[in-house]
Amino acid sequence: MRKVYMDNAATTALAPEVLEQMMPYLTTTFGNPSSVHAFGREARTGIDKARQQVAAALNAEVDEIIFTGCGTESDNTVLLGVAAKYKAKGNHIITTNIEHHAILHTAEYLEKNGCEVTYLPVDQYGRVSAEQVAAAIKDNTILVSIMFANNEVGSIMPIAEIGAVCREKGVLFHTDAVQAVGHVPIDVKAMNIDMLSLSAHKFHGPKGVGALYVRRGIRLPSFVMGGGQEKGRRAGTENTAGVVGLGAAVEMSCAHMEENAKRMTALRNRLMEGIEREIPEVKLNGHRTERLPNNVNYSIRYIEGESILLMLDMNGIAASSGSACTSGSLDPSHVLLALGLDHETAHGSVRLTLGDETTEEDIDYVIDVLKKTAERLRMMSPLYKG
Q: What local confidence, expressed as pLDDT, does residue 326 receive?
C-alpha cells in the first residue's frame, strides 16, 4: 500500500540534517549551558548560535529571541504577560474568532479575570482587515493578537497592514506565526510586529521547543520563575539539543523557502484542481490564493470528515479534519463555522497539508482515493441525492 503523509500542519518530520546537528548535544556535548566550565560553555555555544539563526530568519535582534517549550507556551506568555504588565494602561485585548485555542482559551481565561476581549469576525475566506482592527482599538486597548496564517484553512492575514495600524495607534501587536515561519517570508521590523510565536516542529525541527520574539523595550514579567535563564524570563535548564534543532531547522527552511514555496504551490494547485475536477459539490475553505503554499482544505458535502479520515487512513493517507468529532466533541471546527459554513458542511471537511517529501504521484494518488472515498460514503448517506 502506498503511504502518503499529508498532515504537515499538525507536525513535520525531523529533517536528517537537523538531527545531525542535534546529535552532539544529545551525546558528548551534555554540559549544562549555565555552567561556567568548558562543558557548559560548549553547550552554551549551541544555544547562542540557534538564537542568531532565529533572529536572522525574522530580521530581529539576537537579544529579542526567547526560547520556550512550544508555540502554545509562547502564545500564553504574551497574553498573560501583557495583561499583567500593562494593566495600569488598560485591560482591552483584540483578537479574532479563528485563532488557535492557545490564544482563544487564554483570552477566555483573561475575560474571567477582568479583561475585556474583542473577537473580530473574519470574512468568508478567514481574513480580517486592518480597517477592522483600527475600528476596534480603544483608549484602553493594550494588545492586538492576530495569527499570521490559520492552521486549518491556511488563509494568510494582512499582517503588515495590521502591524502599521497598531504601531500608529501605540498598541502592542502580537502574531501567532506557528504555521507561517519557515514557509512564508517574515520581517518583524518591516511588518511592525512587536511579538511573535513560533514552534520548531512545524518546519522540520524537533517537537517540544519553540521561541518567542519580543521587541526591545517591551517588558514582560517572568513566566517561569527560578534561575536566570533566558534573561530571567524563562527559568529552567534549557533543552539544548532542541534549541539547536530549532535553529538548524529555521535556517534550513528559510534558505530553501523560495524554491520550496514555488514547488509546494504548484503541487497544492494540482491537488485543488484535481479535487474540483473529480468530486462534485465540494467547497474550498480559505482564500484561494492568499493562503499557505502547502494548505488545502475542502468541505465535501453530504459526508462526515471523520469517515473521510478513516477511509483515507485505510488507504495509507494521513490527513486531518475540520470536524472536532475525532476529539470527542460533536461540534464542528470553530474556524469553519466562523467562515459561515453550516454545521453539515463544516462536518464534512478534510485538511491536506503537503510537505517537502510530497510528489506529483502522491497528489494524484490522493485525488483518486479521495474521489472513490467520496463516492462510497455518499452512496451510504441519506442526505445525498446525486
A: 44
Same domain, 245 and 199: yes
- Which residues are registered as beta bridge partners of 284? 298
Residue type, 372: K
Task: Find the domain containing 138 and state its range.
Answer: 16-255
pTM: 0.95
Of the candidates 214, 238, 255, which is a domain's last residue? 255
E runs forming strands in 105-227: 116-120, 141-145, 172-176, 195-199, 210-214
Integer-rounded Cα radius of gyration of the chain: 22
Q: What is the pLDDT of residue 325?
A: 42
Q: What residues are paired with 141 via a beta bridge?
A: 92
Domain shared by 68 and 134, yes or no: yes
CB hemisphere CA count around 42 (13 angstroms): 11
A 10 A CB-CB count for 101 gives 13
Whether the Cβ atoms of residue 176 and residue 197 lie closer than 8 Å to each other: yes
With cell 538531527, the residue in question is 19
Positions in the chain whose pLDDT score sits under 70: 322-330, 384, 386
Residue 115 annotated in active site: no
| 4 located within any domain | no
- Note the pLDDT of residue 331: 74
Q: Which amino acid is at 34?
A: S
pLDDT digits (tens, 9 = 90+) for 307-345: 999 999 999 999 998 654 444 556 789 999 999 999 889
Categorise residue 352: left if φ over 0, alpha if ψ from -120 to 50, beta otherwise.
Answer: beta
Q: Work out the number of other CB atoms within 10 angstroms of the CB of residue 4.
A: 24
Of 255, 286, 320, which residue constitutes the final position of a domain?
Answer: 255
Q: Which is catalytic among the residues 70, 115, 254, 325?
A: 325
Q: Residue 272 falls within a domain, yes or no?
A: yes
Residue 312 makes CB contacts below 8 A (sequence gap 6+) with 318, 319, 350, 366, 369, 370, 373
User: CB-based contacts of 63: which residues, under 8 Å, 6+ apart?
Assistant: 216, 231
